[in-house]
Amino acid sequence: MAQTRTEDFRLADGRALRLTYAEPDRVTRGGLVVLHEARGITEAVLAMVAGLAAEGWLIVVPHLYEGGSAEVDHAEARDKVSELSGESVLAATDIAFAWLAEHKVNLDRIGVIGFELGGAVALVVAASRTIGAAVTVAGGGIIEPLSAGLPPLVEVAADLRVPWLGLYRTEGDDITEQQVEKLRDAAATASVATDVVRFAFETGGFEAWQRALNWFDAHLR
């Protein structure tokens, strides 16, 4: 498993954020910003980081809120998510992009990927920033936003600026088929490549992982 490190990163203009990162053992193919779930940097997030680093990507995880460096309980997670806004998550990812730029990764070779809360944030970023590609895994907040400061995803999907892939389970989440279809329809009106795939939780995990890797392979060059 790739070794992760955490540091407080500060830009010349004074902006600062805590970041967790992992470097590949071989030549860097590009950079990926991994957006953590509501409970912070969980074992599932670290597994995603390790897996992506093993594929040759330089990985950075911006801490979207204070305390994001460790897993928190569900009640605390709800409180932290409720404080997020579109401006705050974009500010955090902008600093992560700057960190990758300092490591010689150009914007067209940068992607974002997130699960659950991070998946929703990935779409918000993809609708507001021009990078290489984005992947959402089980991102909620499609019709009803995850916080008062975040937009419903269906309202920003048409504004997507970068190729975006949405991966949603067929069961096990609070996200309904109707919600996913509405998001698919909204994303299809964007001027970039989009795709929405539903997969079975028990048997489709490998397929979803491969689709995410293939999406980045196709668009980050």
Automatic annotation (TrEMBL):
PANTHER family for the chain: CARBOXYMETHYLENEBUTENOLIDASE, CARBOXYMETHYLENEBUTENOLIDASE-RELATED
Positions of the Dienelactone hydrolase domain: 21-210
GO molecular function: hydrolase activity
Protein name: Carboxymethylenebutenolidase
InterPro entries: AB_hydrolase_fold, Dienelactn_hydro, Dienelactone_hydrolase-like
Membrane-spanning parts: none
